[in-house]
Amino acid sequence: MFLWDEMHICFMKENNNSLRVTVLLTSSLMVLGAGLRCVPVSDLEIRKKLIHGGQLLNGLAGPTVMNAAPFLSTTWFSPDERATATAIASLLNYLGCAAAFLVGPLVVPPPNGTAQPAALGSAQHIKDRIEAVLYAEFGMVSLIFSAALAYFPSRPPFPPSVAAASQRLSYRRSFCRLLSNFRFLMIALAYAIPLGVFSGWSGVLDLILTPIHVSQVDAGWIGFWSVVGGCVVGIAMARFADFIRGMLKFILLLLLSGATLASTWFTLTCLTTVTHLPLTTATLYTSCILLGIFLNSSVPIFFELFVETVYPVPEGISCGVVTFLSNVFMGVLLFFLTFYHTEFSWFNWCLPGSCLLSLLLILCFRESYDRLYLDVVVSV
């Protein structure tokens, strides 16, 4: 998926209409992927292959959606609007994740024993509800594709900034620049480790909370509010960064400090037999939601700092590399989870450890604003 994304980004740099073509291509892949999952086939083996194929197509479209926000903001917005545009474009993607936290528990009955007996559904009823969700997703994706097909221009008539009109490095030179830039590697790890761990942790949040008697519905609401709160705070922080430039490192230090404290609070609360901290619904909600707010809201700030640090490396390549690293850390964590799935305290401790490591890396990082410097100096 990462190499697929880089082909998209390089194509966007060389063709005036490529952003529109890329969006249409990725949205069409999502339509095909969602459609394959809805094909009514009675043979379970064929149905499983169709679902896997649909997930593969959806996965191929995913990296472009996740990484294109900085490129979109540079192409369309002025320097005092870029961070806000990046935040909106990148964090709106997270609202789909927030909806997923609710759709599953509210539409599909839980198969485990965390709900009331009346709420537990039969296998056929659960199957019907899952199919209803798949059909609804296919309809929404088709609507988005139709809207993009009707109107989605690639770029404005005139570049909004000097950086938007300037040349970028080639694909090969960009990778050489990234791999030889120690400062970029520092912030890449500072982003990839905690966000990868958090993505893996939040994906199995219902399993983590089940041993402490938290229902699947409550786990879904916790995930929902943590993502929504992260979107709101992230956009607010990005707007602050647009008003007062050169504060990206300071904002990240604040967010990562809060994430370290919130994750430590949650982990110690789950060890109530050792720490004797009160284990209540309020404390679980508060600590989990605060953790999600601090980490999710850091994503657009990280993206802007990546672009500023390695400019003139194309935005999609730098953000694609760090997204790839984040997925690697998430995959490694979930791989270990397949062997150590009977007890989750080690998984919880990975959260404060990764946040603290990221905080130390950002603390040692020397920030620079090469793209902003170009816009300010040349425009003057």
What does this structure look like?
By secondary structure, this protein is mainly alpha-helical. It folds into 2 domains: 157 residues, no CATH class; 210 residues, MFS general substrate transporter like domains (Growth Hormone, Chain: A, Up-down Bundle). It is built from 18 helices and no strands. α2 runs antiparallel to α6 and α5 packs antiparallel against α11. The radius of gyration is 22 Å and the shape is globular. The chain starts with a helix and ends with a helix. The N terminus is likely disordered. Keywords: Membrane, Transmembrane, Transmembrane helix. One of its GO terms (cellular component) is lysosomal membrane. It is a multi-pass membrane protein.
What kind of sheet is the major sheet?
Answer: none
Strand content: under 5%
Main structural class? mainly alpha
Encode the helix/strand succession as letters: HHHHHHHHHHHHHHHHHH
Overall geometric form? globular
N- to C-terminal separation? 41 Å
Please count the helical segments: 18
Name given to the CATH homologous superfamily of the largest domain: MFS general substrate transporter like domains
CATH-scheme architecture of the largest domain: Up-down Bundle
Count of β-strands:
0
- Whole-number tally of structural domains: 2
* Share in helix: over 70%
Stretches with pLDDT under 50, minimum 5 residues: 1-15, 116-120
CATH class designation of the largest domain: Mainly Alpha
Tell me the CATH topology of the largest domain. Answer: Growth Hormone, Chain: A
